[in-house]
Specification:
The complex is a heterodimer of chains A (about 80) and B (about 350). Chain A is mainly alpha-helical and about 80 residues long. Chain A has 3 helices and no strands. Chain A starts with a helix and ends in a 6-residue tail after the last helix. By secondary structure, chain B is α/β, with parallel strands linked by helices. Helix content of chain B is about 35%, strand content about 25%. Chain B contains 11 helices and 15 strands. The longest helix of chain B is centred in the middle third of the chain and has 17 residues. Chain B is elongated. Classes of the chains: A mainly alpha (about 80), B alpha/beta (about 350).
């Protein structure tokens, strides 16, 4: 999981100036999101972690922090188990 | 005025024996073909762009174009020793248009065939047919607007910006802040309708419903009390991007529906779509009405889907291809701090 977050932070560093954010900070609250950034973020998650972001996953809550993105990736890549 | 249904947005030129007579590396005194220059000037005035795919020495050829006073006409010229199909693709990527809106002019059948084989969507034209090239239906845009006439200059501004962005070592956000962008939203007047129609026809990737409207339909919406037709124009320190966004909102008593949201591909990295949505959210909240949007997914407009969803719109209904999204207006995101929004 920490490797996942490291890869996410690496991607974000190309887009976000302020790198003093915490893993649970809301990145969108600061107005970072534009269409291309959003698209690149979705494509990054799909390509880097070999998964498909479905319409149902396209919820800002799944992308608004490093923790949230890592959580989405975790749910999408863990084989479904009966809890 | 309305003239044609032309689909070509950019003409890619060979140089030797196409733009000029002779081979530059063998004869430095090549002579321009007057009919080629005439085509370039005529199409440029119609808002059709030009570029180059030539196998030549880059510096010699570029210098020759400067000496001939033509270099300013060509965007992203590809003067290399490599494959021309690759050059055509590079131009399409740089300008951000589809291969189906590119025409390629070359005197050599081999080069035309090679490009045609690798890029079947490209229209290949024999340099022997230059005399009537301007009259071809594919070279007749339906309207020539103020934005078409300025199109080359706006793309040149883009080239300068793109170079500045490529050189910029910091994160993208900081670069955007350095641009000082001002987005102006205004109700489309009669004078704006040709550009509005041009936008709906030219924009495929960034059209949320894929629907295109004619001049007459847009004029009807503009006059109707039930609809708002808003245009967006964008400027920054490099100059104007022109009129780059359009949205159509149907106003019912307690519900507004965004029927159309589109923007020029030149501004997709600029946050224009999100800013337009924020404006509509604020207004809807202010008027105490619900806000929905129509979206029709196709293989090219995923970006618009993401724009809506990241702005906080959620699917509330889906029938056939049409998806209805709604924003609950409880939490309206802030405008990015790199953009100033002006509503007139």
């Amino acid at each position: 999981m920490s490797d996942t977050k490291e890869r996410i932070r690496e991607f974000l560093s190309q887009h976000i100036r302020d790198n003093g954010y915490r893993d649970d900070d809301d990145l969108f609250a600061k107005g970072y999101v534009n269409s291309l950034f959003a698209m690149e973020l979705v494509l990054f998650v799909e390509k880097e972690f070999a998964l498909t972001v479905e319409n149902a996953d396209l919820d800002p809550d799944n992308f608004r922090s490093v923790d949230a993105i890592a959580g989405l990736i975790g749910r999408k890549t863990t084989p479904e188990t009966v809890e | 005025m309305a003239t044609g249904t032309g689909t070509i947005k950019c003409v890619v030129w060979d140089l030797d024996n196409t733009l000029w007579s002779g081979t530059l590396l063998e004869d430095s005194e090549v002579t321009l073909k007057p009919e080629a220059v005439k085509v370039i000037r005529t199409l440029d005035e119609r808002g059709i762009l030009h570029s180059i795919a030539s196998r030549n020495d880059p510096e010699t050829a570029q210098q020759k174009l400067i000496d001939l006073g033509l270099h300013e006409y060509f965007l992203y010229p590809q003067i290399t020793w490599s494959d021309k199909a690759e050059s055509v693709r590079a131009i399409a990527r740089a300008i951000n248009i589809g291969l189906d809106s590119i025409a390629f002019v070359d005197d050599e059948p081999f080069e035309r065939d090679a490009v045609q084989f690798a890029c079947p969507e490209v229209t290949c034209i024999n340099a022997a047919d230059l005399a009537n090239m301007s009259e071809m239906p594919i070279m007749q845009p339906r309207f020539v607007t103020e934005d078409s006439r300025l199109r080359r200059r706006m793309y040149q501004n883009d080239m300068t910006r793109n170079q500045a962005e490529a050189k910029y070592m910091g994160p993208q956000e900081a670069f955007l802040e350095s641009l000082g962008m001002r987005l102006t939203l205004f109700a489309a007047g009669e004078d704006d309708l040709q550009r509005a129609e041009e936008l709906t026809v030219r924009t495929h990737q960034l059209n949320a419903t894929g629907v295109t409207y004619s001049y007459d339909e847009l004029d009807w919406f503009r006059r109707s009390d039930r609809y708002d037709l808003l245009m967006a124009r964008l400027e920054d320190r490099y100059g104007s991007y022109g009129h780059i966004g359009l949205t159509l909102v149907e106003r019912q008593e307690d519900l507004w529906i965004i029927r159309l949201l589109l923007m020029s591909c030149r501004v997709m990295s600029r946050g224009v779509g999100t800013a337009m949505l924020l404006h509509l959210m604020r207004r809807a909240e202010n008027q105490n009405v619900r806000l929905q949007a129509h979206f029709v997914p196709n293989d090219r407009n995923r970006m618009m889907n993401i724009t809506y969803r990241f702005a906080g719109f959620r699917e509330v209904e889906s029938s056939g291809e049409l998806v209805t999204l709604e924003h609950n207006l409880a939490e309206i995101p802030a405008l990015p701090n790199y953009m100033k929004l002006i509503v007139v």
